[in-house]
Design a protein that fits this description.
single chain; alpha+beta; 2 domains
């Protein structure tokens, strides 16, 4: 096998190994970054929901205390306000979601679905768990959800949700007396659940991965070509010339050519050594010739 083929096989093996390692590492990093971006978006949505709840509870509800004596206003309920804000956002971004999933809600729209009920039960069984992150398939694609427990931490909540007898009559008139009662202090009654689509960040990460790998392949091809040109110019061609002259000399053709090189590298040193060997061989041949 020729030297250039051996060189190319070694170079190709090194490239394939490096290409595989770079692909594995970069794909993992890009996917992890994409998921972290999704999680940060979910946390941002969660904080926006908490801010909406706080605003409603501290600024809206006090202004409507008098009206609440005559009619129940769901706009004064923090959970209702946060849900309405995100429902309005979903008109433009339907893949995003926010829900205060409750096991026994007053408003039927807040009732937890099967998978949301599983999340709530995890919080109820492991009270030290303050946040849960997971993935699930939806009709619009893969989505990441972030959930936090809803715990009864204020006696004000029990005014509406402890028993039917103490609940505001206006609320019972609107929602009925079948649901939303029996809550207890420090009980986890539901979970705030934010859903964020994964398709866009993952797609962007995959496109970045493909661009990176294509660029890496182009760099290798360019390097491969340049190294082959350098190898042919600086090594193969010079060695081929030396081998051709040496072959002719070995057959007795002492006029085949001269071993000359201006380079001081290893091949130049070899050329000089072959030149001196040829001179010695010519002198030896002349000494063997019979005298006239």
């Amino acid at each position: 096998m020729k030297l250039i083929w051996k060189f190319n096989l070694v170079l190709l093996g090194i490239f394939l190994l490096g290409f595989a390692i770079a692909g594995y590492v970069s794909h993992g990093v890009l996917q992890a970054n994409a998921r972290e971006e999704i999680v940060q978006n979910a946390r941002l949505m969660m904080e926006a929901a908490l801010s909406s709840r706080t605003y409603t509870n501290t600024q809206v509800k006090p202004l409507l205390e008098t009206q609440l004596k005559y009619a129940f206003l769901p706009q004064t309920v923090p959970a209702y306000a946060a849900t309405e804000v995100f429902n309005d956002m979903r008109k433009k971004h339907p893949d995003y979601g926010y829900k205060e999933a409750t096991l026994n809600p007053t408003n039927p729209r807040d009732r937890a679905s099967d998978w949301e009920a599983d999340v709530v039960n995890v919080f109820r069984q492991a009270r030290d768990t303050k946040e849960m992150i997971g993935e699930r398939d939806t009709p619009t694609g893969r989505a990441l959800y972030l959930a936090r427990p809803i715990e009864v931490q204020s006696a004000a909540c029990l005014v509406c949700h402890s028993t039917i007898e103490v609940a505001p009559k206006t609320m019972i008139d609107q929602y009925g007396a079948a649901n939303g009662f029996g809550w207890k202090m420090n009980e986890i009654i539901g979970a705030q659940v934010v859903s964020v689509p994964m398709s866009v960040p993952i797609k962007r990460a995959n496109e970045t991965f493909r661009t990176f790998m294509a660029s890496l392949a182009l760099v290798f091809i360019a390097t491969f070509v340049l190294l082959n040109v350098m190898l042919h110019t600086m090594v193969i061609r010079r060695i081929t010339r030396l081998a051709a002259i040496a072959d002719q000399v070995s057959l007795g053709n002492l006029d085949a050519g001269e071993f000359r090189s201006r380079s001081r590298d290893e091949i130049g040193v070899l050329t000089g050594a072959l030149g001196r060997m040829k001179v010695s061989l010519v002198q030896a041949m002349k000494m063997l010739e019979p005298s006239p």
